[in-house]
């Protein structure tokens, strides 16, 4: 069937979508959580899937120990191999942690900006470790949420500096 997807169609899915527990701001999860490896295995069973995408913390929880992180990465790598699914894109979660309430790269707090930059560097490395050819800089909280929070010109300068630095790092 010409409409049945195949891996050459390059359909990809985010770990955050397939593994989503169906929770909304007002309710509890409606589905069990899946590990990244279980998500990849599920996508492999569906067929026609080329790749998977992830935020750093979709793959490795922010509070994981180094031993836990390595186990997750090992399990994920095995699932990728079993399913013949590629990692197409990686990005960094610079929005969920309350420290980013005022932005990540544009925060008024220099320590938050430095943390965001280091986190992005680790996210880029994590994506590269799994062969991602694309890295997305998604500024989930970089907008000026109210006119009083920050100077928009300074925020744009900070964002540009971070992207220039990270581009050089890449």
What's the gist of this structure?
With 170 residues, the protein is of the alpha/beta class.
Structure description:
- By secondary structure, the protein is of the alpha/beta class.
- The chain contains six helices and four strands, in the order E-H-H-E-H-H-E-H-E-H.
- It has helices spanning 15-18, 36-46, 56-59, 66-83, 110-129, 152-169; strands spanning 12-14, 51-55, 86-91, 134-136.
- A four-stranded parallel sheet has the order 1-2-3-4.
- Helix 5 links the parallel strand 3 (86-91) and strand 4.
- Helix 5 (110-129) runs parallel beside helix 6 (152-169).
- The longest helix is centred in the last third of the chain and has 20 residues, at 110-129.
Characteristics of this structure?
170 residues; alpha/beta; four-stranded parallel sheet; 6 helices; 4 strands
Low-pLDDT segments, ≥5 res = none
The number of E-state strands comes to: 4
Q: Main beta sheet: strand number and arrangement?
A: 4 strands, parallel
**What percent strand?**
5-15%
